[in-house]
């Protein structure tokens, strides 16, 4: 009720355990706090919070327009709704080293288990688009050093993302990743890998866990969990997938409403009222205050629009 029963420190320890364990951890992207709760119910390992999703939900492109306050607020909302560790996209850290340090401490206060800082310039863009630019190696290293130095909880995972692959090629990306690990990164997120062989090359070259980004309509094929595990990847994210699924369903439902004048045809695909109430834990609130949940759904219609 109200909040996760697991402390932020416990979530961070769990995230580190996942990264160190054999196999691969799967982190679907949550686009709302309630989505995070459903991700947990389905049995996934953790929750990812995408910068692109946070921007898109506000009607903005993914070019660094969101603020630290907006990201920290949503991170706290998502984290409150799940016992799973939450990994947050912190973009470029919202500025230079001092800003990066403040970003880390603000997100730490929000309860996240980990965050990643990337090496793009501002304004940034989606990692799977052409025309990206990255900062020089010294600046990239400085961001990670600042992030590591700023954290107060040593269990907080500081991950380094590099976008160099799409600009200077795989060898340059591996070299930069090594420098970022030397600066203290706990894990590496190599963006826009072109093949499983490239993921394997990165994993073989580094002594820290590697993350794979399986985003649709991007530069990478959509490899399976097993394929990625077989080449050494420690964690895979599906950052925008659930938002895309939801927006596709909304688009189709609106077309149905225009065409039919009713959403009866869409009801079988909807989450039922009973499932929603279970997900938001009406019963838990009722145990605290009997006046909250003093009704029954037995007289309500079911998922079948004919009943």
Largest sheet: 5 strands, parallel
Report the β-strand fraction as a percent range: 5-15%
Distance between the termini: 32 Å
H/E element sequence:
HEHEHHEHEHEHHEHEHEHHH
Number of domains: 1
Strand order of the largest sheet: 2-3-4-5-6
CATH topology: TIM Barrel
**CATH superfamily heading:** Phosphoenolpyruvate-binding domains
- Mean pLDDT across all residues, rounded? 93
What's the number of extended β-strand segments? 8
The chain-level structural class is: alpha/beta
Q: What is the rounded Rg?
A: 21 Å
**Broad shape:** globular
Stretches where pLDDT is under 50 for at least 5 consecutive residues are none
CATH architecture: Alpha-Beta Barrel
Which CATH class?
Answer: Alpha Beta
Helix count equals 13
Please give the share of residues in helix: 40-55%
């Amino acid at each position: 009720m109200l909040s996760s029963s697991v402390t932020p420190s416990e979530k961070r320890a769990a995230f580190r355990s996942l990264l160190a364990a054999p196999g691969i951890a799967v982190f679907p992207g949550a686009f709302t706090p309630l989505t995070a709760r459903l991700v947990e119910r389905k049995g996934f390992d953790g929750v990812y919070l995408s910068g692109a999703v946070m921007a898109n939900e506000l009607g903005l492109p993914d070019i660094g327009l969101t603020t630290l306050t907006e990201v920290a607020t949503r991170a706290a909302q998502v984290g409150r709704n799940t016992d799973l560790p939450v990994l947050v996209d912190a973009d470029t850290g919202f500025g230079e080293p001092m800003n990066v340090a403040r970003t880390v401490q603000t997100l730490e206060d929000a309860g996240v288990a980990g965050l990643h800082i990337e090496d793009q310039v501002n304004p940034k863009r989606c990692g799977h688009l052409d025309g990206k630019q990255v900062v020089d190696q010294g600046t990239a290293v400085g961001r990670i050093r600042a992030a590591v130095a700023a954290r107060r909880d040593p269990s907080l995972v500081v991950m380094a993302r590099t976008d160099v692959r799409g600009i200077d090629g795989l060898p340059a990306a591996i070299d930069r990743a090594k420098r970022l690990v030397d600066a203290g990164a706990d894990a590496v997120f190599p963006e826009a890998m072109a093949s499983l062989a490239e993921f394997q090359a990165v994993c073989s070259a580094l002594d820290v866990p590697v993350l794979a980004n399986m985003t649709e309509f991007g530069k990478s094929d959509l490899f399976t969990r097993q394929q990625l595990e077989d080449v050494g990847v420690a964690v895979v994210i599906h950052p925008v997938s659930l938002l895309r699924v939801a927006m596709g369903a909304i688009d189709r439902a609106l077309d149905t409403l225009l065409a039919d004048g009713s959403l009866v045809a869409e009801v079988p695909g909807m989450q039922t009222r009973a499932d929603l109430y279970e997900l938001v834990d009406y019963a838990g609130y009722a145990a605290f205050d009997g006046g909250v949940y003093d009704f029954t759904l037995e007289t309500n219609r079911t998922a079948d629009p004919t009943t």
